[in-house]
Amino acid sequence: NARKYYKLAAEEGYLQGMEDYLYSLSDEEKINKNECQFILKYNDYLANENSIIHSMNIANSKIGRLTDQSKHLYECNEKKTDFAIGIEIYKNVIEKIKDPKPSSNFLTTYPALIYFNGWGNVDMNKELAIQLFKKNSDSKSPSELSKAYLLLNNLNNYKNDLKLLNEILVSEVTIYKPKRYIVCNNVKYDFKIPKVDKENKQQKQSRKLKYLEPLKTCLDNASREQRIESVKSYIKSWIENWFNNPELVKTLNLYG
Q1: What's the predicted TM-score (pTM) here?
Q2: Is 182 in a helix, a strand, or coil?
Q3: For the residues 78-90, what does the mean pLDDT come to?
């Protein structure tokens, strides 16, 4: 098959052959362990040639985040994580990009997630994590996860921040396949509204708010402890979706 020829080209030192070989691997494919030496070698080689994509694949595999391309790296490394190296690679890659944004998720949200919870070989540092979450949350394109952890921190410190909670909820409502959910009073809300043809922005926004009414009423009437549980359910769903690795996620502390 074509993969055999990609490997021949790769072994001759052709970068395109290495890329073609790696992209020929389906994320659903069960990898033969004999292929691992080539998967690891070509990914490392391309990353050392400053390939952003392959560097990110390595970083994702180091923290156990499974994407189409990082899944095989993770499995070839026997599912071993190294969160400290993952953070370092994210930082190095973003700093090489022209005009890197200091508030980028790769410099703020994702490292903060690891620091807040003290995963693997990274010591817990909630103070640093909160600083990074705030840096991201104050940017033009904040992550909802940063907001959720700031909200959890506020609630744990007896500060009710319904404004932050409202921002998260409004941003999540979608006509597409929902990625996340929140639980309130044992009811699971998946943020999915039906698609309606030929509606304008105002009409769509109105439908979003209508969908959120019972959820907002539930959260408004909830106690502090109940709101904390709701925010935790949202954080859990965000991490489950982003990591795409239930086996790992169930072993992680998610709430500091």
Answers
A1: 0.93
A2: strand
A3: 97
